[in-house]
Structure formats: C-alpha cells, structure tokens
Amino acid sequence: MRGKFAFMVAGTHSGCGKTTLTLALLASLRGRGLHVQPFKVGPDFIDPGFHHLVSGRESRNLDGWMLGRRYSQNLFEQRLKDARGAVVEGVMGLFDGFDGRSEWGSSGEMAKWLNIPVLLVVDARSMARSAAALVHGFQTFDQNLSFAGVLFNRVGSAGHLRYLEEALQSVEGSLPVLGGIPRDAEVTLPERHLGLVTAQETVLTEDWMRRLAALVEEHVDLDELLKRCAWKGLPEGFPESAHESPLDRGERNAPFELLQGEREVAPSGIPLAVARDAAFCFYYPDNLELLESFGARILFFSPLAGEPVPSAACGVYLGGGYPELYARELSRQTGFLETLRKAAADGMPVYAECGGLMVLGRFIETLEKVSCTMAGILPFGTRMLSRRKALGYTEVLLREPCLLGHPGMILRGHEFHYSEIADSEEAASVRKAYEVRKRTHAPARMEGYAVGSVLASYIHLHWGSVPQAAASFVARCRAFRHRQ
User: Fold this and answer.
1) Domain presence at residue 250
2) Domain check: are 146 and 288 in the same one?
3) What per-residue confidence (pLDDT) applies to 264?
4) Which domain holds residue 215?
5) For the whole model, what pTM was predicted?
6) Coil, strand, or helix at residue 167?
7) Do residues 163 and 297 share a domain?
C-alpha cells in the first residue's frame, strides 16, 4: 500500500460499538507499524483520550457546528502531514447533527468535507436479513457520501455472519461486508452514570490492546479496507452554506493563519497555570495551543496531588472533569484552595469551565448528600443529580466585557453535566457576562458568572470558534503581570 489512507468509523446509532471498534482499528494499525492520526467528530473529551493511549498520537476534535468547514479541513490536513493515515471516529448516528432538518454538525457532513469514505458499523444483535434494508437506507440516503463498506458488530456466530453477508449480497449494488466482530465483553470500555470512564482513570494494559488488535486482524479484512480508503486530498471548492461557523463567515482561521501582529510571544511567555489530573481533564488541545500561540507558557499542576497554584502564574485555567468523584480529596487540598483564593483576591485572571466552576463554588454536594467545602470564590455551591441536567450544543453571546473578550463576540461550545447550582438566590446576585442560546427553541438565559477577575461557566467552549477569546485571556494575564 502506498500513499496515505483515511476513513471514518460511523455508526447507525449511538451505542453500536464504534468507539471500541475505532480503538481496535487503531491498535491493529499501530501493531503493523503505521503512524495513524486519530480524530473525533463532535464535542467529546473522553474518546480522544482513549485514541491517544491506543494510537500514541494526540487525537483532535472536528466539528461542523462549533468549528466549521475551513477550520476542520485545515486541522485535518495539518495533523495528517506526518502520519501515514487517519482514522476519524464519528458521533452518534451517521446523519445525526445539530437539528433534524439538515446535516449540520453530522459525521456524514464531516466525511464529505474531508473527502473520506465511511466504514459503517452496524449492531447485528437480533438482526438478520433486515440488516440489508438498514444498510441500503444508509447507503442511499445521501448520494454524495462515499462508503468503504460495512462492519458488523456483536455477531452471534460464524453462521450469523454468513446470513448477514447473504442478505447484503441479495441487494444489487450493496456495500461489501469487511468484517464481523463477535460479542466480546472483555474489550468493552467501562461506563458510569456520566458516560465512559476517562483515559486518565483507566490503565490500558498491553494485553488489553493486543486483544483489541487481534479482533481486527482475525475478523476484519483490514487490507481491503485500506485499499478502499486511499486519501485523494481535500475536495476542491465547496458551495456556500447557510450553516456556517463564525470562522466560515470570513473571520480569520487561527491557529493556522494567525496574524503576525497579534502573535506577541514574550521570550519566556506569560505563565498560565492549567490544572490537569483525573479531576481536571477536559481540555481541547486546540485551546491550549491557541493560548500558547498568543504568548502563554502553560504550567500544568495537579490539585489532587496537593500542588498549589504555581507561584509564577499570571492566570489560572480550571477545565472540566469529574471533581465530584474526588470532592473529599479536593476539599483537603488546602494548599491548592488557599492559593486559588489568593489568586482571585489579587485580581489574577481565573477562567473555569463546568468542573472548574464547581470547585470555585462554596461546596460540592455529592450523590451521597455529603457536602465538601471548595474554594468559596463564587457565592454558591453545586449539587450532583442522579439524572443529567444539560446536554447539547451551546452558543454564547458576550453581553458584558470579560476575560474572553468584548460585548458582541459569539463563541460556540457545548454543555454536559449532572450537577446544578444549589443556591439560586446567591447565583442570581452574581454578574453574568454570557447570553446563552441553545439549539432548541428554549429561551436564552444569562450565564457566565463574573466575580472580579474570575469567569466561570458550565459551558465547555472551543476557542477555535473564535480564537480572539484565547488572545483576550492571555492579554488579561499579561496585564496582570505588568501590574505586579
């Protein structure tokens, strides 16, 4: 095989096994000595972490709604330069996206933008000839989408797979069956009420990854798959769409086209403390790179390990994660909490998302109704719920000047959390910088809690949507250093 290859692993629906199969394919390709760049469609932090552990390369998010076509295409092309190929894991079902009327934000849209074929994953449990009708519907739904073939998952037996192959062969022009994975619970990723366990919490042993690779080598025609997925480059030209990101509407496409005049990188950089451990693990790599592009020098530290905010820091970034699982430990890390309080009291820029917001509050109440004291920088606490509180794409309009920019700026991200603010009256008294607009017909709400130099929100923003947000944050950190 010569040249580069690229394909998308997409499913008929969520839960069909595409994440485990993507990891198996990555493990098998790495076992053959191929350097493969993984990607994930959609706003996801957990799957890319597993991609990284299995492939050895940092996975990146692609998103038609949050980031748009140009950003996604440029990111894909840049990351593929020093790799032999790319494996892109889709999101939800192949055609599921921002709404029910269009392909906006879907895996199918992204596959066309990147000019790559789809390996369609079909859950074969309790299914026989009906599989042919299902595959035919996916194959013909969008004539502009190309497919490499079908991979059946959770196949009951060799006879079951032959039955499925016969069913597809009975339909003229149907997709080829490139494999059938038998039921194998041993390679299933563990789950919890918040979704998959994170890569930071899981030890992926060499034996586990060998079993993953063996599944593909034994049950998938990998050579045929790669033959069908030779990458021919990005498509030339693209019709304008009403569904565009802020970048696609003509704003500059950082980090690939940073304007030199805006890229003021100090010799030593502006030191920015970023909490990173099992409690704070949800960061888009692009966000960190954008901060560095605008002059930040990232200082990682672990609150769970008892590390305080680094003394050299001129700003703090608390990402999301699962602080509620470590609430007792965090409440005992007085060095971290005290230095965080001092940073906020000194006027140091502090930006927090979701789990970071929870730690900035007065307390976290766990599902067991245990209240664990937190930093108390925000005047309210948060409590965990047994049911999901929020999920979905979110657009933010800045209504007030804040760490991320000026009124009128629009940023995009998503929400996914099982907690809520416990003190609604206290929260109502806090200045709010965001007008939050959901994809549904729900009315806009005010959020983005701004207290002094602190900005906290439940929303995970991807600054690739508007890179000026990263520039603004670094500028605030630079101004703090000058004041000091």
Assistant:
1) no
2) no
3) 47
4) 5-227
5) 0.90
6) helix
7) no
